[in-house]
Amino acid sequence: MINQDFKAMLSGKSKIRELSEFATALGEKIGYENVFDYSLGNPSVPVPDLYNETIIRLHKQLASMPLHGYSPSLGNTAVRGKVAASLSKRFGVPYETKHIFMTNGAASAIAHAARCVTKPGDDVITFAPFFPEYMQYIGRTGANLKVVPANTANFEINFDAFDEMMNENVQAVLINTPNNPSGIAYSEQTIERLAAYLAQKQKEYGHEIFIISDEPYREIAFDGRKIPYVARYYDNTLTCYSFSKSLSIPGERIGYVAVNPKAVDADILAIMCGQISRGIGHNCPSSSVQMAAAECLDITSDIRVYETNMNLIYDKLKELGFEVIRPGGTFYIFPKALEEDANAFCDKATKYHLILVPSDTFGVKGYFRMAYCIDTEKVQRSLAALEEFVNTEYPNRK
After folding, report:
1. Residue (of 158, 130, 146, 173) closest to 360 by Cα position
2. Whole-angstrom distance, CA of residue 243 vs CA of residue 218
């Protein structure tokens, strides 16, 4: 008999992917340039020249085995050392090679990190709004994902609700800052408060509580702000990173877990990740991509376009009367819909070729997400469609 659990998932496909497929089908009918697709967070800016140049050079200069063969189970050792050195220099946390485990992107990093610090039946807490695939990343470990309701005033952590949900069975807290879908970057005050709270709970419960910090957007920050590096504030932190957004290489599937050197059992957690790989079929990222990414650790694509796009959309949303919190980073914005049912709101938007993602899938009702990682020219053209949609469908809005 086939697995009934996974069969049941067929009726609950990712809403984001479903809308992306709808946008593609609509584009085949009317031309994709006429579809204002804000569904999928697929970076549009070109990769840095250095990345492409490095890939070409590696393929020309290296022998087949180091380029295309298996890397060690924890990742290319030299690459791990370069990642550790870069993080240490940038953030003042003294990582060494032994603290880095190379992964197939942030999703793989979270899957490994969660298995390192939980067992089936344990609780992991996250905060709404949250990336919906967390339900799978954590649930498939056998742990229970508990979601703290959103603080819709500013989408920072709802500490009162967090405290009510906290219990001795919690082994990890999964955070994402800057956040998908809200675009909010947690303030330093929020991170300090979270760290102090968890330190207190560790003493009270008599066991470690890890932060699993999901950070694929940490390079995309707006208004000149600096994104607090969570591991600087809390020892038991596992940092999960992807180069997908910073280098615009999501299809390359490359990232890492960085174990805070001050964490409990810091010297063996990366090695444990290697053993976890045996059970989930991870088996190392591409050798050539690891080496290419290692040459681009301290650069990014020209991600300034995301702030340009954000300002265009944010200003138009405010002009049209939407309630919306200005993003601090990422390439997402999370306005309140103009009616209680966000699904109905987003369905109406498709008549104007606007593809928006309703918020229910992110653990909050009544909002919608726009992923504005598209060409600025298309963002500009979409504003007229957004205005027509709002004025036609909601002429009596307040």
Report:
1. 130
2. 10
pLDDT at residue number 15: 86
Average pLDDT, the chain: 96
Using the structure block, give the residue that is written with the tokens 């020209």.
302
Is residue 252's pLDDT more than 70? yes
Looking at residue 237, what is its pLDDT? 98
Q: What is the pLDDT of residue 299?
A: 97
CA distances from 280 to 275, 284, 287 (A): 9, 11, 19
Residues 6+ apart with CB under 8 A from 30: 353
pLDDT tens figures, 99-140: 999 999 999 999 999 999 999 999 999 999 999 999 999 999
Cβ atoms of 253 and 105 within 8 Å: the answer is yes
> What global pTM score does this model have?
0.96
Closest among 271, 272, 270 to 260, alpha carbons compared:
270
Cα(238)–Cα(174) distance, rounded to whole angstroms? Answer: 10
User: Residue 32: helix, strand or coil by DSSP?
Assistant: helix
In the chain, the domains with their CATH numbers are 4-47+301-393 (3.90.1150.10), 49-294 (3.40.640.10)
- Lookup result for tokens 């205005």: 387
Please tell me the distance from the alpha carbon of residue 18 to that of residue 313, in angstroms, as a whole number: 23
CA distance 347 to 329: 27
Side chain identity at 10, as an amino acid letter?
L
Query: Quick one: pLDDT band at residue 398, thresholds 50, 70, 90?
Result: low
Please list the alpha-helical segments (H only) found in 105-158.
105-117, 134-139
